[in-house]
Write a structure and sequence with these properties.
The structure holds two protein chains of two kinds. By secondary structure, chain A is mainly alpha-helical. Chain A is built from 15 helices and two strands. By secondary structure, chain B is an all-alpha fold. Classes of the chains: A mainly alpha, B mainly alpha.
Chain lengths: 280, 308
């Protein structure tokens, strides 16, 4: 009696988990299977869409890499990501340190103020920024994104750094200063080496945030050569009015995988960042 | 509150400027403030200016026209439709996302084999770039080869000849964009609820159980009030992201059919960028602002409550 009850309990628990995971992950299964299906199989109303009805093919992948700008878009994304990460580190690292150590009570309010700019959405700013970008002559250039993306990475990463530095005891720098270092010297010699995990987190997050952005890229860039991968795939793999779903899904899958992995690895730090350190 | 102060002979050191925390502090902070000020605050002022001018990309004049742009926008039927859609979209996606998020968190907080994998898969919709994930949905909603229609027909809910036009029929399209956005958002709810649940001290719950509190009482009178501030912050972020979204709608329906799924973001894009009418586009964007302001105040209050 008790065993049956337990089995039913376990059974419904796992059924719930499986339903949930299916809802979340099904579109990714769909990308995967579409990538390797032949066109004859994809566009056949009679065949079961969940599995292969003809032998799997690598044709879509070949086409994607050889006949489209996909690799070039990946390269553009890498350039934008690296530059944005560099700008973010240079600006947010000192700012985070300053807020954590040298700005007192006013610093706390300033910190919250900076954090709140993360709530300002691209939708509010893309119109005036598109005029600013064209006034600067950066229209249709990936450098426009390098300039604009730090507006959302800097606030968020400053906030992350602030929390991170606050968790390091003050006594460490004070000891270095007593030993004759300047404030900057103490920071470089004692705090930076301890901050490597924090810096890594910020690098990953600044990079994934730039990869996820879509609105600014859509607004500023229209020539195929300059597009990041998320924009190029969504707009340029559709030829005429025809969607080439094999190539589209292959591209979406390949570009998604690295972001998904990075995100999962650093998820916990992101959460404590966004909840303002409410969860320790 | 100056944390690090140089004292004694070091003050006469030639490098003494680098030893004064009150100088270095603002200096280190200045680039961040300037960057955000120049590229967030100034463009916002520019948007305010566009909204009262006759600026289009074909006629970039800053001629002042007062509030006539606002009057034009508010008189338009499409705009009223858009405003309603935006609220339906936002509230719908929040309710689905939050309920699903809480439910999922209650499942995933238990220890079971495969929990790590399940959590990683559940987080996917939120981690993957929106434009790529939305493409997969677009393919699933295909007018002819939709896997959803195939499945519904296979289990006998619709006839095989009935190709539901998920993105081509106003009510279905509204449902589709809302569900896709809820799908994107719910993992965020999951991780927030999990973080909240694990932050509730075990001894508090044990004490409550000893005192006779049952499952519901523990849930709604102890856990929920304790995690309320962070759930609040998550809810506000979710609302802001949904309310101001333009990616999902743009990619799935471009606001169509016949403006049936138009939201503020997509309408502003269509008017301000596609048609080049920057002035009216700016007005539409500015309707987001009062809601953002409310959100900011709410976040501040939640943050303060957390500190007490």
């Amino acid at each position: 009696m008790r065993l049956t009850k337990w089995l039913i309990g376990e059974g419904s628990f796992y059924a719930a988990v499986i339903t949930l995971v299916t809802f979340a992950a099904f579109p990714f299964y769909w990308m995967l299977i579409t990538t390797f299906k032949t066109d004859a199989d994809l566009y056949n109303l009679k065949s079961n869409p969940y599995w292969f009805n003809t032998a799997p093919t690598l044709e879509h992948l070949r086409y994607l890499f050889q006949e489209t700008l996909f690799l070039h878009w990946l390269y553009n994304t890498a350039i934008i990501g690296v530059c944005v990460v560099a700008i973010t580190l240079v600006v947010a690292l000192p700012a985070g340190y300053s807020l954590a150590r040298m700005s007192g009570r006013g610093g706390e309010s300033l910190g919250i103020g900076i954090f709140l700019t993360y709530l300002v959405p691209p939708t509010l700013l893309f119109l005036p920024l598109s005029r600013v970008i064209s006034a600067l002559g950066l229209q249709d250039s990936l450098w426009s994104l390098v300039l604009v993306y730090p507006t959302f990475t800097i606030p968020f990463c400053t906030w992350l750094f602030m929390g991170f530095f606050k968790s390091i005891p003050r006594e460490i720098e004070e000891a270095a200063i007593v030993d004759g270092c300047t404030i900057i010297g103490a920071f470089v010699k004692t705090i930076l080496p301890l901050s490597v995990p924090g810096i890594l987190t910020v690098i990953i997050f600044a990079f994934t945030l730039t990869m996820q952005e879509f609105v600014y890229a859509l607004t500023f860039i229209s020539s195929s050569d300059e597009k990041p991968v998320t924009l190029g795939v969504a707009t340029d793999l559709v030829r005429g009015d025809i969607f080439y779903w094999g190539e589209l899904m292959a591209a979406a899958l390949i570009a998604s995988v690295p972001v998904a992995i990075a995100y999962n690895l650093f998820l916990d730090r992101f959460i404590s960042g966004i909840t303002g350190g409410a969860v320790k | 509150m100056t944390a690090i102060t140089a004292v004694g002979p070091r003050a006469r050191n030639p490098r003494f400027l680098l030893d004064r925390a009150d100088l270095i502090g603002p200096l280190l902070l200045a680039p961040a403030i300037l960057y955000v000020f120049i590229l967030v605050a100034l463009p916002f002022v520019l948007a305010l200016y566009y909204s009262v001018s006759a600026f289009t990309i074909f006629d970039p004049s800053y001629r002042f026209v007062g509030i006539s742009n606002f009057v034009d926008v508010m008189r338009s039927d499409i705009f009223r439709r858009t405003l309603i859609n935006t609220f339906v979209f936002t509230i719908g996606a929040q309710v689905i996302g939050l309920l699903l998020g809480k439910f999922a968190a209650m499942l995933l907080i238990k220890e079971f084999p495969g929990r790590g994998l399940a959590r990683a898969l559940v987080v996917l919709p939120w981690a993957v770039p929106v434009s790529l994930a939305t493409l997969a949905w677009q393919w699933m909603f295909d007018s002819l080869y939709s896997v959803i229609n195939w499945t519904l027909a296979a289990v006998g809910l619709i006839s095989p000849d009935n190709h539901l036009q998920w993105l081509g029929q106003q009510d279905l399209a509204m449902l589709a964009v809302t569900v896709v956005h809820a799908w994107r958002l719910f993992p965020f709810g999951v991780v927030i609820f999990i973080a909240g649940f694990t932050s509730v001290p075990k001894d508090v719950l044990d004490a409550a159980t000893v005192d006779g509190a049952g499952f519901w009482r523990r849930n709604y009178q102890i856990i929920l009030p304790m995690i309320a501030p962070i759930v609040m912050i998550a809810l506000i972020f979710g609302t802001v992201f949904t309310f101001t979204d333009l990616s999902v709608v743009y990619l799935l329906t471009k606001g169509g059919p016949m403006n049936g799924t138009q939201v503020l973001g997509s309408l502003a894009f269509q008017v301000g960028i596609m048609s080049g009418d920057v002035a009216h586009g700016a007005v539409i964007c500015l309707f987001l602002f009062p809601f953002l302001l409310i959100a900011v105040v709410a976040v501040l209050r939640a943050l303060r409550r957390r500190e007490i």
